[in-house]
Records
---
Amino acid sequence: MSVENWLIREDLEGGVTRLVLNRPPVNALNSAFLDLLGAHLDRLQADTAVKAVILASNSKVLSAGMDLKEALGFDLKDQQAMVRGLNVSFTKLFGFPKPTIVAASGAAIAGGFFLVLASDYRIAGPKARFGLAEVRVGVNFPVGPLAIARATLAPNDLRRLMLGGHPIGAEAALAAGIVDLIEDADAVMVRAVSVARDYAAIPSGTFAEVKRQMRGPVIETIQNAMANGANTPPEGWFTAETKAAMSRMLG
């Protein structure tokens, strides 16, 4: 499957566009996937016919996060490319001026969880799980994902998810306010389209301005850090512990 097919754009009625993650089996992220996400977001932002965007998946998993099998072979440039991809793509999603609705029927783990945290409205299936496994993979948080997590998670949820590295289920995520609704698996997309159409009816300029008021300071902090070298850590992203931790995670 070519990189271009890892994301599928589907234009629905009412100004709603669905962007479907399509890298089986678990939509694992690498720098090419993240760059592709960023490019799609740029095109959707420029397209005046698009009023709201749904993020969804063609598999049972929204995204399991970084492609650990691929990451075991990363050199310094690969690590820097991954950090840049995480910073740039998720900051674009966090600041995207149009409404974003995520349909998470299944797990959203580590980098995949930021597809949820950076979106404006979050719908989960009953079997969905959410977590930040970075500490167990042996990597820290690049500046973009870290700032987004701090801005969107309550302090105790941040503590448990980031330091423990264990996922939580849909009901716990709903109780914490991490997701907005839980729907039966076969109803997640129906509800996502309904919510997207509702958000699409909001005056677009006003929505973009209010979102900028909410998230602008966080985005400015991330952008300043990226401009000062946060995308290219000179020693790379991995430590002496990372590849062994990844191997243990892979079993």
---
Amino acid sequence: MKTLIAGVLLVLSTGLLATSAAFAAGPKADLEQVKIDLHDQAGLQRGAKYYINYCMGCHSVKFSRYNRVALDLGLTEEQVAENFIFTRAKGEKTKIGDLMTNGMSAEDSERWFGVTPPDLSLVGRSRGGDWIYSFLKAFYVDPARPLGVNNTVFANAGMPHVLWELQGWQEMATKDDGEGGTEKTLTLAQPGSASPEEYDQIITDITNFLVYVGEPARLHRTTIGWWVLLFLSIFAVLAYLLKKEYWKDVH
């Protein structure tokens, strides 16, 4: 029995090491860091606005409801209904309590793009804020690609640069790094309607919104946690005093 258990543990550990090595060997882009502030309500509102207008036509966030987003972001249901909801279900406008899905069917999207664009409800948890932020900054012109663009964070991504009007067009520049290799950098060849600083703020807001969508409870969890710690501290003092009172004559 001991030999059998040892054999099972050896197989499991070998498999885990192999999996870890496979992940470690995979390509990994250098990510830029972004400051996530889920208590920046104005930033979350802006991020929701940009996401609805530029991203949700293809990428739904079907694990969220419009009324929950309204509540968490400090918006009225009337504001959300008027500015966020542009889809219909069975001929009627989508209701405020419905899930945040888009009007594009999986069959149509696969026929048009070759693949169904993924739902982004959990991308903030699976990829992280740094990945989203870096991805949205990393599009560049690539005539060899079907849609004319590529991405340094997610190579050969099958999507257009939907924020090109804001950012403009970047080009890939290469130069000798002095060690026999090449160094690749992105340069802004054609500016967009937003300055680089403004564009950074826009994608920071979008990233903030997607991180919130991935775990809405995170908005309140930290605050509740401090109250719980305060309660436990007060309870610990009372429990200690009660213990002293009960045991003061037992000696």
---
Amino acid sequence: MSSPNADPSENRRPISSRNHNWAQRLARSLVKKGISANRISLTSLLFAAVGCVALWLSADVSLRWQPSLYVGAALCCQLRLLCNLMDGMVAMESSVKTPTGALWNEIPDRFSDILFFVGVGFAANDMTLALVLSVLAVLLSYVREFGHGVDGTMDYVGPMAKPQRMALTTFALLLASLVGALPVLKTMSVTSSDVLSFSLWVMVFGCVVTLIRRLKRLVDRVSR
């Protein structure tokens, strides 16, 4: 069991970019401007919604600017991750803790996951797979939080934790934009929707493996 006086930073998601100078300067700048961590969390949800709309529009294969929509959605993925990085750093930098802080940290994330995967489901014409992935993503966060409630440990083990899911989604969207934009790739039998559908399958498989790993590690911890 963790100590009640344990440093909360010990249970933060391990992100190497948190130690970069640009990230620390940006966090300090946001604090100076009075932008709260909760507002940043809400902004991450906004980027997810914009990405979802872009992918919904991209389902119309007749659109000339379909590749641009993929790129825009990929940018939204990365901006969502930037918000996820900044909300925690701003909270630590400002030393401000609100009663609803934990809710703002988690709830927008869950809806953001669902919005992005539903968007990819629209673009890939595979909504069933997107909904399965959405359920798995929520289950992964539930097991992590449940484990935290049991023994104070936040388990972020992969191979398909949130950063990996968003990285793969970003890569798939950029690849799909190339498939749709380059004439040489248009002659191939692979379409943009094929690329996105394949990425959904990879994430579903990875999430199942991650779920099994987290459950096993939780059982091992509580059985000691």
---
Amino acid sequence: MEKKSTKKTIILSVLFFLPVMFLLFLYPSKHNYNALDIVAENVAKTSDFVDQDNNQVFLQDNITVLGFFGNNAMAKATVASNLKELIYEKFKGFKRFQVLVLVPEGSEEQVNLLRKELLKYDELKYWQFAFGHPMDIEKVFASLSTKSVLDSNYASNHVFIVDKERNQRGRIDDRTDKELEKNAPVYGMSSYNGIKVAELKNKMSEDMRILFTEYRQKRKGNFNSSTRRADDLKTNEQEN
């Protein structure tokens, strides 16, 4: 009986301590967390834009997916649908999250048509369309780091991630593992093509998750705020 009791005690002790040891093993990894890269700082303010209720809209203190749908918003219905299904639906419950789409003044009818289309599937509580002067749209777009351009209607298929401090986030180094092995030239990703479902699903969604994790860890005091800047990319390009 005594042997059985001793054996039972040993087994219970092992079962108790194994999870504890596993957690202790994982704990240091929290401090090795890498932030989503800052690819541009001081994105232009949007306080000159107003929503359909004539309220100002702000990037500051919000985690924003920023888009530009131009004069003909319905022409961006595919981008809007992809964005809503793959990004908005996934993150709309997170604190301070918003989708903000800038459009020129006078495009209200087009926006209403697009809103009705999107509202067929779900509400748009954290999705705003904001109206402003075309010059102000160009100003905001010019403050972003991107190789894409606005078309003649002040629209783009590309969307952007802007953090609470009005920093644009993305990837300074977006090379695949195979490209890294071959020491391929560095290239980044500063915007996400809303037409490409795989890009939104596999890259933008992951980057948003990383950014929300960063802010959650900051609140807990477990985050080292050092992040890479666009200057690092220039250094890497010079080295290559």
